[in-house]
Write a structure and sequence with these properties.
single chain, about 450 residues, alpha+beta, Porin, 2 domains, twelve-stranded antiparallel barrel, 10 helices, about 35% strand, disordered N terminus, signal
Length: about 450
């Protein structure tokens, strides 16, 4: 969030432009993860975007020819498609879990034309997913936010107390000179600055006043034709010298690294069309995610730690038919950690995930005709590195490299090398916030 955006958020009387309040984050949708388009297991908390799209490909084929990606994903968050008139406090601190569920609930869909069966046939497949995110701020977070907003509002109110009489004076005295203006306005400037207690050192205060007055003296003389331009220049000098923007910049920097716990819950299912006709389909597997994440504080606020628990279950009938020569574990429990380092426009992520797979195999029947089972188990490991760059607030380029879990069809092919281009649309803007509400 830029200084300009946050200034608009807090003080609508100055700016009326629609500015986005949420920057797009690295794409991780449940639907894409189930299709292995997004190979990381962890579902990182998503930003407030009405619609996100992603293209997954290395964008060149084996002949080094440019190709159009055929794998894509969409994630839709219905809440942010309309204006809800939220105040800044309501925006930052939803009043209950139900409100957070409503705002963060998203539906995702992903598609691929390269879902390979056991006989090497490429088929179409869809991933369909849902997720919601819950943020639990700590007391320190609320204290920092309240203090920052209070300081910015106080500074802004002080400037208004100076601007208002300046505007009124030139309205009443259209023929006033620059000297007349300075004689009238400087006592107000001195009084308001003193009341604000912004400068604890008298020498710093005097230095500010001397510089402010010198810059006003350097402005062109006031005339009826240049009155509005003079007032604009006067406001710019006041903004620059009093530097409220520094408070805003510090606050917006904090908002990108808010302190607290986030919990993401996701669910997705896979739909395969084995003969590439819409009328005939199977549901090969489904997944359930629970992903807690926590932002470190103080000198380590650029780090975020995430844990993940994913239960993935396979449907025997499908794999018996289309992967007859392959043993498939019915139940898979994935667990691990991920560390994300976030900077101005890029982020680095490392993920280490273990997998425990189990399945019951029918081995015989007893004398009464009852099936007897043997439990088979296996362990596996996946590790990935991820680099993301925010080209703009609504476009992210991501490259992932690592080793995946052993695949069903090609167990020796564990290399991950993937480029993704993600787009975000419909993030909440300053027009979605009722800025006069507290």
């Amino acid at each position: 969030m830029s200084s300009f955006k946050l200034f608009v958020l807090l003080f609508p009387s100055i700016f009326l432009a629609q500015e986005p309040l949420a920057q797009l984050t690295t794409p991780t949708s449940p639907a894409a993860a189930l299709l292995d388009l997004n190979p990381t297991v962890t579902l990182a908390p998503k930003s407030y975007q009405a619609l996100e799209t992603a293209l997954y490909s290395n964008f060149v084929n084996s002949n080094n020819e440019t190709v159009i990606p055929t794998d894509f994903a969409l994630e839709f968050t219905p809440y942010w498609t309309k204006n809800h008139g939220l105040s800044i406090t309501e925006y930052l601190y939803p009043e209950n879990l139900g409100t957070q569920l409503l705002r963060s609930s998203s539906v995702s869909i992903a598609s691929t034309q390269n879902f390979v069966l056991g006989d090497s046939t490429s088929t179409n497949a869809l991933g369909i997913g849902y997720r919601a995110s819950f943020f639990f701020p700590n007391k320190k977070d609320k204290a920092i936010v309240e203090k920052s907003i209070g300081e910015i509002r106080n500074d802004f109110n002080l400037k208004n107390e100076i601007r208002a009489p300046a505007i009124l004076f030139l309205e009443i005295n259209p023929e006033a000179s620059k000297a007349d203006f300075l004689k009238e306005i400087m006592p107000t400037v001195i009084s308001e600055i003193n009341k604000s207690k912004h400068f604890s050192d008298p020498e710093e205060l005097q230095k500010f006043l001397n510089k402010f007055e010198a810059e006003l003296l350097a402005l062109p003389e006031i005339t009826p034709a240049t009155k509005d331009a003079f007032l604009d220049q006067f406001s710019q000098i006041l903004d620059q010298e009093y530097q409220t923007y520094r408070l805003i910049s510090n606050f917006e920097e904090y908002l990108t690294r808010r302190q607290g716990l986030t919990l993401d819950i996701g669910l997705a299912t896979l739909l395969n069309f084995p003969d590439n006709t819409f009328e005939f389909s199977y549901v090969p597997k489904s997944s359930l995610w629970i992903t807690p994440s926590y932002r470190f504080t103080n000198n380590f606020d650029f780090l975020k730690a995430l844990g993940v628990f994913r239960y993935e279950w396979y449907h025997d009938t499908y794999y018996d038919r289309y992967f007859p020569d392959t043993f498939v574990f019915k139940n898979n429990l994935d667990y691990g950690i991920s560390i994300i380092s976030e900077f101005k426009r890029f982020s680095l992520q490392f993920e280490l995930i273990g997998r425990h797979s189990s399945s019951e195999i029918s081995i015989a029947t007893d004398d009464f005709g009852n099936d007897l089972f043997r439990k088979e188990t296996k362990s596996d490991l996946q590790y990935t590195g991820n680099f993301s760059y925010n080209v703009t607030d609504g476009i992210i380029l991501t490259y992932t490299l690592g080793s995946r879990f052993k695949t069903i069809f090609e167990p020796k092919n564990t290399l991950i090398s993937l480029l993704a281009l993600n787009f975000g649309f419909g993030a909440p803007t300053t027009n979605d916030i009722a800025l006069n509400k507290k």
